[in-house]
Amino acid sequence: MSVYLDYLTSYAVEQERDLLQLLRAESPTYRKELVDKCSGILMKMFEKHLGATSVVYPQLKRGDHFRVKVGKGRKRILILVHVDTVWDQGRLVTYKKDGKIFGPGAMDMKGGIVQGIWAVKALKACGGLQGKEVVFLCTSDEEVGSQTSKSIIESEAKKSQVVLVLEPPVSETGAIKTSRSGIGLYDYYIKGRGAHAGIDHEKGVSAVKELAHQILKLEELTDYRRGTTVNVGVVSGGSRLNVIPDTARARIDFRVKSNQEANRLIRIIEKPVPVTEGISISVKGHLNRPPMEKTDSTAILFERVKEAGRKVGLLLEESHVGGGSDGNFTAALGIPTIDGLGCFGDGAHALHEHIFLDQMIVRTAMLSHLIGDL
Predict the structure, then answer these.
(1) Are residues 13 and 117 in the same domain?
(2) Cβ partners under 8 Å of residue 205, min gap 6
(3) How many domains does the chain have?
(4) What pLDDT, on the 0 to 100 scale, is given for residue 1?
(5) pLDDT attached to residue 243
(6) What tens digit of pLDDT does each residue of 43-80 get?
């Protein structure tokens, strides 16, 4: 029997209480005052359970980021979590039913935050933290691309030997994430020439018509065999029904598995060729997150994860996923990174978002073993 699982099982009620408290402190990314209030509650949890104080990185428009250090030693483990959620205040209700906890961010990723705190608490209580420094970096803007936290994440990663990301594992299978797609975000701005749709139709150059041509070109870049997808998700254009539209806009999201493929798409997307004479196209955007590619060091780290899982009765598999996380940034630096170590559940970004309480205890114990064994 796992000593960590024994310890954590005896404190199951306290862990559930911590999670419910965090869920009720709603923290939508765009509401700085709510995110900061939730972070304040979380800082008190770190102090209560781990005796650790927080170093705050103040932000003007986003919630403040903060860092917590526990333990001392030559081995430095960075744990990445984010406090913000995609849910507007009041959109979801927090409640418990049939061994599950529902609420905004239960799975993505407040459950993972609670797991991280209690995993290290169990390590300290059972004497497994010697010789290690564990650093929690808690950010506030992961759900919108980590614009203000990226540099902090990269700086902390460069000081660490390994990065553990407490995003949820794969829904249904519970698989650990050893690779993630990179994400590119772009905007096309198309300029044509307006004219009266009845009197001077031939004098107009339709930006909307050109946009239709460009959408087809972009969507045809999708290649499932390569793991490449391109989605034109938002379009707009024109001003009046009886006016040839002189402007149009498209918002583009692409996902790729490798840096090589990312560079290929960037070259194509950043240099669009107009189909219609008299059209100009300007492009704004960038690779928001580089691909998290599986490396030899990732494979070695995943073997450690599997061994930690076996100690608590879990047979863990690995998986690639199309979504990105802050682990994409650290993996791109060459730091061994493993993701999906958080709370097992279902419905991330969906109305039925929830976690399984019994799995929360077991996976917290697995995380204790993993950190202790690294």
Answers:
(1) yes
(2) 192, 193, 244, 246, 276, 277, 278, 279
(3) 2
(4) 74
(5) 98
(6) 999 999 999 999 999 999 999 999 999 999 888 999 99
Domain limit, last residue, from 263, 289, 315: 289
Which of 258, 289, 320 lies at the terminal end of a domain, its last residue?
289
Task: Give the global pTM.
Answer: 0.93
The residue whose two tokens read 């254009």 is 237
**Do 172 and 215 fall into the same domain?**
no
Give 228's DSSP letter: B
Three-state DSSP state, 16: helix
Backbone angles phi, psi at 236, to 5 degrees: -155, 160
Phi, psi of 39 (to 5 degrees): -60, -35
Output b/e per residue, 8-40; b: 16+ Cβ within 10 A: bbebeeebbebbbbbbebbbbbebbebbbebbe
Q: What is the pLDDT of residue 74?
A: 87
Give the pair of three-digit tokens for residue 182. Answer: 């990179």
Same domain, 250 and 268: yes
Burial state string for 303-320 with b = 16 or more CB within 10 A and e = fewer than 16 = ebbbebbebbebebebbb
Ramachandran angles phi, psi of 340, nearest 5° = 80, 25
303 pLDDT more than 90: yes
What local confidence, expressed as pLDDT, does residue 17 receive? 98
Domain containing residue 125: CATH number: 3.40.630.10
Domain range holding 30? 3-180+292-373
Question: What pLDDT is recorded for position 237?
Answer: 98
Based on the fold, state whether residues 117 and 72 are members of the same structural domain. yes
- Concatenated DSSP letters of 166-226: -S---TTT--EEEEE-EEEEEEEEEE-B-EETTTSGGG-B-HHHHHHHHHHHHHTT-BTTT
- The verdict on 54 and 13 lying in the same domain is yes
Average pLDDT of the chain? 97
Digit-coded pLDDT (tens) for 322-363: 989 999 999 999 999 999 999 999 999 999 999 999 999 999
